[in-house]
């Protein structure tokens, strides 16, 4: 069976200097009107969507440049959740507001379906729109749980809300739904976290798949330990996406020992955390080894993380690199 190769950016994009300054004037100085803020954010969203299309990608990720961090839009959309002080987002030079759960979350509104509706209006029909949801285990682990309930109960309730997000986003036109669980590559992650994450991510992604969406579980920023990864193989997703940049040898050992569990190979092979061009020959060598090891029939070429950690001009160049490397690798595999 011929190898099917897909390509897309893993997640969100950085803000331009214009958006940063506009938001600062609005949020900190009360010197900007909310209509003007919305217009500036929307114009930059169109720019980034256009950059993805212009690069030749057919799967277009929502750039979420208006989001302050991956958790906050959801925390602000749910009752019984407040946002507290800043904490570093894993090992990145990036901070998030800590969600504080005072009781079990109760959604006031859905976050992603209105975004899908708006973006679908400007996308060509051939383009597949992708949204990214926070993983419920990562969400619960990075929050303050003051509910009196267990972490497992809180994560399960978060998953129920996110499953509704996934279902309604897919109904609105999202062709790809991804769940990010970066905590599973953290040193503090346990096998119990992985079992719970696989179960809850399956619940979310199955809701999207039932509406026709393709699905991914992504583990950015590091490589999960073997005892963690093997538990994730039970997840119901089309792809499990691994960071193949920072420690490619460890990823290959993981794939050789544990396989893919009937998933496609999600290769986070384009470095998202620096601005330097990626070397095609090195990438080709890593992909060849991974495919030889796993016998995968489906390959997803993507970035190792979201592109929001580097300046916008470099993020757009990385977008072009994703498309170019996928095209070159596809051409070689067809001969």
TrEMBL record:
InterPro entries given in the database record: Cbl-indep_Met_Synth_N, UROD/MetE-like_sf
Which SUPFAM superfamilies does this UniProt record tie to the protein? UROD/MetE-like
Q: Where is the Cobalamin-independent methionine synthase MetE N-terminal domain?
A: 86-292
An example of a Pfam family matching this protein is Meth_synt_1
GO MF entries: 5-methyltetrahydropteroyltriglutamate-homocysteine S-methyltransferase activity; zinc ion binding
Which Gene Ontology terms describe the biological processes this protein takes part in?
amino acid biosynthetic process
Parts forming coiled coils: none
What is the name of this protein?
Answer: Putative cobalamin-independent synthase MetE domain containing protein
- Organism equals Pyrodictium delaneyi
């Amino acid at each position: 069976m011929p190898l099917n190769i897909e390509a897309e950016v893993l997640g969100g994009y950085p803000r331009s200097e214009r958006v940063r300054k506009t938001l600062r004037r609005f949020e900190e100085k009360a010197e900007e009107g909310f209509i003007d803020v919305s217009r500036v954010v929307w114009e930059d969203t169109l720019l980034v969507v256009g950059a993805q299309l212009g690069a030749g990608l057919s799967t277009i990720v929502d750039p979420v440049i208006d989001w302050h961090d991956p958790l906050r839009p959801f925390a602000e959309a749910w009752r019984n959740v407040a946002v507290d002080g800043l904490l570093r987002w894993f090992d990145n030079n990036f901070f998030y507001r800590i969600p504080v759960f005072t009781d079990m979350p109760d959604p006031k509104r859905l976050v992603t379906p209105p975004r899908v509706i708006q973006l679908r209006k400007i996308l060509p029909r051939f383009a597949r729109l992708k949204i990214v949801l926070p993983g419920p285990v990562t969400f619960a682990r990075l929050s303050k749980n003051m509910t009196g309930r267990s972490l497992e109960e809180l994560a399960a309730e978060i998953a129920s809300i996110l499953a509704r997000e996934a279902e309604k986003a897919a109904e609105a036109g999202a062709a790809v739904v991804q769940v990010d669980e970066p905590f599973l590559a953290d040193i503090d992650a346990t096998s119990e976290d992985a079992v719970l994450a696989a179960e809850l991510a399956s619940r979310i992604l199955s809701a999207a798949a039932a509406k026709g969406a393709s699905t991914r579980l992504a583990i950015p920023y590091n490589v999960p330990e073997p005892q963690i990864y093997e538990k994730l193989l039970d997840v119901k997703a089309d792809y499990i996406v691994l960071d193949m940049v920072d420690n490619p040898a460890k990823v290959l050992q993981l794939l050789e020992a544990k396989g893919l569990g009937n998933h496609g190979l999600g290769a986070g092979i384009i470095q998202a955390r620096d601005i330097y061009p990626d070397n095609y020959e090195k990438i080709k060598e890593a992909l060849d080894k991974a495919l030889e090891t796993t016998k995968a029939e489906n390959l997803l070429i993507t970035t190792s993380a979201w592109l929001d950690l580097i300046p916008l001009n470099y993020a757009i160049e990385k977008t072009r690199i994703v498309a170019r490397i996928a095209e070159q690798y596809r051409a070689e595999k067809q001969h």
